[in-house]
Amino acid sequence: MKRNGLGMLAAVLGMTVALPAVAAEADRRQVNQQQRINQGVRSGELTGREAVRLERQNNALQREIRRERRDDGHLDAAERARIDAKQDALSRRIARQKHDAQSR
Fold first, then answer.
1. Is the Cα dihedral 67, 70, 73, 76 positive or negative?
2. Residue 50 CA from chain centroid, whole number
3. What pLDDT shows up at residue 26?
4. 10, 32, 48, 51: which has the highest count of C-beta atoms within 10 A?
């Protein structure tokens, strides 16, 4: 019985330590995507209009993350999945715009 209790305790502690790391990943991705947009502008891969559009989308996603955290300070699994999907889509849009061969 004592081993089961220790195993459960270890599992709970592991999950509570991992939750902030998972939530912080959404923030890290947002920063990374903003850096990709800035790099695209500096290198000439993105036009001004493309950069403004992508930055607006990135900012809207950041507001959504803050709104989702407002209730308890954390993102639950469904919220994380939804945000991950939106971040994936934004990442693809950034890549597509950077490699679309438009003249700058």
1. negative
2. 20
3. 82
4. 51
